[in-house]
Amino acid sequence: QIMIETDAPYMGFNGCRESYLRDVEQTPEYKGYNGKKRKKMRKAIYPNVPGALPAVLSGVTDALNEGRTLRGEELYSEAFVGE
Predict the structure, then answer these.
(1) Is residue 61 within 8 Å of 78, Cβ to Cβ?
(2) Which of 18, 33, 34, 62 has the fewest Cβ atoms within 10 angstroms?
(3) Closest of 13, 25, 26 to residue 57, by C-alpha
(4) At what angle do helices 16-24 and 35-43 cross, to 10 degrees?
(5) Is residue 28 within a helix (H) or strand (E), and if so which, with residue range?
(6) Is it the case that residue 65 has pLDDT exceeding 80?
(7) Which residues lie below 8 Å from residue 1, measured CB to CB, with a gap of 6+?
(8) Contact at 8 Å (CB) between 16 and 52?
(9) Each residue of 7-42: pLDDT tens digit?
(10) Rounded to an integer, what distance in angstroms lies between the CA atom of residue 10 and that of residue 77?
(11) What are phi and psi of 5, to 5 degrees?
(12) Coil, strand, or helix at residue 82?
């Protein structure tokens, strides 16, 4: 079993926070925030956010499949790894 989590708030990756903010900005709650709270969310120092977990899972799946491809074995899917 593999568990991925957001224990390292300062260890983000390119696009990590941006994809999270794109999703959040579409929610009704975000639209109700005042300008100060919106700015605070965009300027937060933590690049690692829970919304990045799907991208992390994708990277883990790619890494697991790297050797499997070379050996001609069946590849793992993200759904299988995420179970």
Answers:
(1) yes
(2) 34
(3) 13
(4) 160
(5) helix 28-31
(6) yes
(7) none
(8) yes
(9) 666 676 777 777 777 777 888 888 888 989 888 877
(10) 28
(11) -150, 175
(12) coil
